[in-house]
Amino acid sequence: MLDSFNFQTKHNISYVPKKPSSSGIQLTLEECKTRNEKYPRNHLKQVKFDEGVINMIALDGLPFNIVRGVGFRSLVADLDAKITVKNRSAYMKKINRIIKTRTKPTLREDLKKITKRSCHFSCDIWSTKRREGVLGVAAHFINSNWEIKKKTIAFKRMTDRHKVEYISEIFHETLKEIDVPADWVSCSQFTLYNNTTEED
Q: CATH assignment of 113-199?
């Protein structure tokens, strides 16, 4: 942890964290022995923390690298030093497991309850900071209660040039993964502009 943060270049202020007071409550021998121990991975607090990190990343669209941040880890340590912040790969595996065991089965069940006339699929392409193409696919449909719903189906990494044939291939493979009948997509229309692709 940094001893101080100097913002004088732009803000003309300096922040120095306060040092712990020496007049605090003295720890017991047992507390001294256990204060640096980490919770087991199946401990309720550790499990709830891991779930909270996953929800934060998913709901706010944050990069997995946030768990590597010095500020984030320092915050967690201040709140509860026994919490273990796992690496980005661990949280990626957890989210992929949730998608496989919960999200996709639920999506399949939702799509079974509607007809092809009430469902529309769309896709869009973005580029990462490393200039890697990513194809996002979403389903838009009306359920039995006449409510408009939107479900993100998948994000697919693109390893080839953004040609119509290649995009169409990935798009249809994605729909096949969630058991969308082939006759649901009878016509494809692509519009290419500003490195963005959509399909109806």
A: 3.10.450
